[in-house]
Amino acid sequence: MAIWRKVCIGLVAAAGITAAAAYGLDAADRAFPPPLEGAATVSAEVLDADGQLLRAFATPEGRWRLKATTEDVDPQFLKMLVAYEDRRFYDHGGVDVMALGRAAYQLVTNGRIVSGASTLSMQVARLIEPRDGRSFSSKLLQIVRAVQIERRLSKQDILNLYLTRAPYGGNLEGVRAASLAYFGKEPRRLTVSQAALLVALPQLPEKRRPDRHLAAAEAARKRVLSRMAVVDVIGEGEAERAELSAIPTRRLQLPAFAAHLAEAALRKQPGVIQHKTTLRRKAQQGLETVAREAAAKLGPKVSIAMVMADVHTGEIVAEVGSADYFDTSRSGWIDMSRVYRSPGSTLKPFIYGLAFEQGIVAQETIIEDRPADFFGYRPRNFDMTYQGDVSVRQALQLSLNVPAVRLLDAVGATRLMVRFRRGEVQTLLPANETPGLAIGLGGLGITLKDLVQLYAGLANRGKPVRLGDGIRDIPGEIDGEPLLEPVAAWHVADILSGVVPPLGAVQRGIAYKTGTSYGYRDAWSVGFDGNYVLGVWVGRPDNGAVPGLTGFASAAPILFEGFAKSGFAITALPRAPSGAIRIQQADLPISQRRFSMTSSGLLASSTREAAPQIIYPPEGARVELGSLASGELMPLALKLQGGRAPFRWLANGKPLEEASRRRTAQWLPDGNGYSTLTVIDAIGRAATVRVFIE
Description:
Helix content: 25-40%
Radius of gyration: 36 Å
Shape: elongated
Structural class: alpha+beta
Largest sheet: 5 strands, antiparallel
Strand order of the largest sheet: 7-6-14-13-12
Number of strands: 22
Distance between the termini: 114 Å
Strand content: 5-15%
């Protein structure tokens, strides 16, 4: 019994000592934890809408360290890595005892280190807590740290740290940075040769850099491919073929797109690792290439800005703030897409849209292009010549100045500014000046982004669209009144789609307009198809003149090239809405066949005490109404000319709505067949048409 008592006492004592030791080790572990917090420092990244890398920023110490996880790399690379570096990675607790014993035996018997015993966990410990030299004390610390890391992190987390922190020479850290620098691609899909090189480099990253030590890199890759465990993963024949593949001999630049927007993303969201944008990398890359090459042709100090957006969602899919962010001679650091400049003639389409909307003119209405005096303001055409009598369609396509000012005088400059506010666009007028006729020819300031926003609304059937900032602002359609009525917007787009393309360009189904500011300081071109709108600005950031700079010759070719290089297929423009038809000049109502003004600025043939006249639908017209998405019929647009406001409309003798001062209205027929439409003005004069609804 005495012996058993002693045995029991001994066991209890041993258990107590073991527990105390375990407690002591646990306390020491908590008191001296591994420095995992600092291991999380990685490069900030700016991504496109699909998650592709647009731009990365070096860490504070100047490292390209891109966050990587096992999901970001080729599965075969992971298998090769574990097979080469740590075959029992998933079985040990941080230290491979068998490998450690083998290495110790070889050291004793050979008097030198024959093979290592570092596990991936030990390598992670060395990466997050680097020490000089390879002493036994530093190796012992790695072992302790590896055990501590295994207690805190899962195997996948440990792999993620290795994939993010492994050195690849120079300031490259992590498999993503290395793959982008040496192969120009993310490591999601690697060849066997590429995977073997990425496995081999971290052991001696400086001595094996392929851009400096090609022979050493080839030898290291060969050792990886010849390791039996690796051969079991990839197959012997595949290893032999991989040895024949060439190794890259130069280091590529990491993606560096959308410089201005990337900088803005970091300012708006400091501390965020990955910044998601609405950009599309292919479109962004294409537009940057177009801008850089075009600027080189245009000469020194000239910069280019481009903004491309979805006309339905308002998302910016590509944005170029300057021809080259790093070109100081062109002030490349200035984001010219956000700078107020004179838009030249690019606002003319909205003047014509208002005129169409109010029923003042039709596409084939004749308008004069002759010298005119508007209370002291005497606009001239760009080439100082005049065309005489032209159609409204020709006047807009040729961008004639006098006809545009005549129409702006009729619709009112203030009304045009109200439409800009509907589109949530801010313009800049000269100090202490109110909107005047000069705004139709560029007499105000607007940014390229806001100009693109206006054209997005025009392309979106007149519904204003809010452009996002490309980073986190929520774009989309703007609730409220339209920028232009759908029929008016269609007429404008129809005219612009017929503008002759620039020299050497192919007609691509794009509706576009150009503009040139006073003194050859700004050249503009804005165009759209059924899905996207693209705006181009060309000029000097210092506002200096560029002789010969024009919208048609300088900016329009860039617009067409930008659409071609964006990667988006050209989409047809929307179909004509109900009520939108082209009417030949001879078939127009008499009052719409020619536009003219009296000296007092009133319409001579249509509004100065003239009786009201229904100009749409015309007498005897057969109208086929379209359908809305809900299946309901679309309303019929009604337009009148002349008369004195307010006006009251009647359909088949029944009032449509309250009296209105607008010269447009809408009517939803009860069914097919003949209907009689009547309008009565403020002094009782009336006009009537009879139409057939199909």
